[in-house]
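Batch 3, record 17
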Amino acid sequence: MSNELHTRAEKLIAQQRVEGISREESMWLEAHLRECANCTQLAQRTDAALRSLRQNPIPLPAGLAERTKFRVHLRAEVLREHEPQRRLLWFMCAMSWVLGVTSAPYVWRGFAWLGGHTGAPKLLLQLGFGLWWAIPALFAAAIVLLEHARQASEPEWSDEQN
Amino acid sequence: MADDTKSLAQGLKRRDPELLDLLIEQYQYRLFRYLVYLTSSRERAEDFFQETWIRVLERGHQYDGKSKFEAWLFAIARHLVIDWQRQKKMQSLDELTDTAQDNPLQIEAHNEPSPLHLVLSHETQAGVQDSLGRVPAIYREVLLLRFQEELGLEEIAAVLAAPLSTVKSRLYRGLEAVREAMQGGAA
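Prediction for the assembled complex:
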């Protein structure tokens, strides 16, 4: 029997277990295994290795699930507590956007009036108008950043605290 | 299955604590086993186990219910382990894979037993488990996902965030490695 046949059989033995092979390939492999003791041994060794892998027990640490549930419940509580704050923040952002849009013509007129009286350059007025619009967003961003910083400074829950 | 995963996704979006309790119970063994295979340490696996479920609670809304929950769960666990490795200024599992050479990630030097090897050896004297500890971690991982978790190749690719060809190549090499390890262990 040529080496090519054994190489093909070896390849198919692995392929059959990893991704499957076609019916023709399977029939060819079976026929080859009936005649080749070495390849049969390889197939048996592969199956034995996979069986061992499947049956390999790793005992669970005692109380792991309970400890995890406890931590998850604590975290869920914290998240629930923060939920109204987050909603309020979104509401404030939405309100500020709506008010910004509706008040834009009046604010612009106000800036134009101010410019007319003070003789300030147009670019400065435009920058001021842009800043006026950006203030609510900057304010919201500052709140979010402060909140993140506060959360980061909170001590992590550890097993020692259990 | 589609209905199950959809309702699961809705429950996770609601951050339903009872649902999470059930999931922790249901997947505790599989997740812990995966983490032990990945980290080679029971203590570390315990920490990552808890962190993974916290992450599931926080990011539950990201699970769309279109894929198997376990694939999503394992992907979260894997990301946590890789983040931790990066924080420790170590290379990630993927980066340590040299596909051009037969030089995959080794947890310890060839002649020394890996932590997993030690863990398993202490727990049982079975030669099979000793042998498994000698299989490189990146191969153990795909072998576990394919032959213990029975995930499809595409699902494994999603967990690993790697191309299908990489998954297949690791599986073939892993199969060879585990076969050799068993043979060596039996000898």
